[in-house]
Amino acid sequence: MKRAITLLATAVSCALISSVVIAKEARYPEFGNGRIEQNLVKASEYMVSSANPYASEAGMRIIEKGGSAIDAAIAVQLVLNLVEPESSGIGGGAFSLYWDNEKKALSSYDGREKAPMLADGKLFQENGKNMSWWEALAGGRAVGVPGVIAMMEKVHKQHGVLPWADLFEDAIKLSEEGFEVSPKLAASIANKTNPALGRYGDTWRYFFPDGKPLQAGVMKKNPEFAMTLRRISLLGAKGFYKGDIALSIVGAVRITAADNPGLLTTSDMANYQAIERPPVCAPYKAFKVCGMGPPTSGGMTVIQILKLLEDKDLAQYEPLSVEAAHLFAQAGKLAYADRAKYMADADFVDVPVEGLIDGDYLKERAKLIGDKDMGKATAGTPPNANTNWLESTSPEQPSTTHFSIVDKQGNAFSMTSSIEMAFGSTVMVRGFLLNNQLTDFSFSEASDGELIANRVQPGKRPRSSMSPFMVFDKDDNLVMAIGSPGGSRIINYVAKTMLGVMEWDMDIQQAISMPHYVNRNGGTDLEQGTKAAELKEGLEALGHKVSVRDLNSGLHGITIGKDGMEGGADPRRVGRALGK
Ligand code: GLU
Question: Which Pfam family, any one, appears in the UniProt record (predicted)?
């Protein structure tokens, strides 16, 4: 963190420092232009930053009751399922990092959805042709075995303090007594973010009461979800993966969604396991940055972008300058080229994890970055790589959620959770939506006889972009927890926010609010309606193909320094950082 800056003052909301507990003002501020004002929040004991104030408050209550970061995380996730159903929930999957502050130990957990054992590389083909992404996503076909509940139970068994059932209380109460519909949820329904929403009866009745889209400000109840949560609170994960909830999920995938049925079975449900995996870490200047390994590409690709820029002395440029955006875009191109070729579920294909984040390899790759745009980057040859894979081009769309939590003991949890598309498969079971996460696989299994690493295989997990991250100082103290939704742009959002803090010395709110520039090995996207859009001409002069568009991140992060914690929440969503 090199220098204090004020230069972003025009581009980001002014950081108004306050010690906030639970806000007394209106639950949701104006969201008219899809942006709200967010202020830096300071705290000395603990902090929760999530995509919805109900969820952040639930997390705080758990910590006040003596709960740990993981206890709070479970309450946050369950409340998010209710109040932000378009983004995540128990019908989906997640990746998380857990920092044990006493043992100074970092663990990472994979709760990613799995393909049914009956699925194969032809899952998304009809009459020998790939289906369109829009045809594939709604219904049962793309529903993977949900992983959130198994992952939460696993982490809770290892690191939880409060009883499992206590963590369900807030979500059950809000489901029974009602919650205020957020402007973001209402807009996602009204704007038909997922055109298939309402295709199935239960979903239609829930999101279109009296035939009209659910309105912002309305108090909404979800008693079916309360019943689902009661069962899981009493029985644990087996209450979800076995018995009548599992049967309802399989029935919905195969029968309710008979127009586009899936292949899920009760034994797929019963056999699901969340997995603890080694985190992926690398040094970056005075820091150590750690993310999640395969099956997400997030950890490796964020690290690649950072390492490709490590010697470029980014701090010499203004954050919102043509030079900085150019360098960031070039690093993005190189990293996404490797991502497309090598990254997939390492339980099924050989992913050269160490090679992809190898310092010498990335130093060589960084030499490809010049003063002009490099055009389309091709994948490199990392040490120990099987280079026979073909690139995969599975598209990912914005929904998903991220939250970061630090508890009173300094333990931390950083979790990105998703049902894939907004409203997932649009199939609703017992008060929650099922994911369409299998559309993150490549729809083709091979091309010209060569196999694609991220093809569908039975029991495999689709490649993700989710990038929960933690950053440590040289003494192994946690200094930042961060992550974002945003489909495959997640990687850009997270890398850029980390650079904001590590290179440009921004506070976490400034780094989150900073207008976006993004490159995924194609054109450079600039965030519409912000100062970033003013970089268009300058980048075009360097050969970039530029589009100015909405870039809908949902970054929720916490930094820890000598003077305590600071929390930030994304102005592009309706969340809140809360702390004490
Ligand atoms: N399905 C995406 C992934 O796992 C996330 C979707 C999103 O962020 O909207 O990478």
Answer: G_glu_transpept
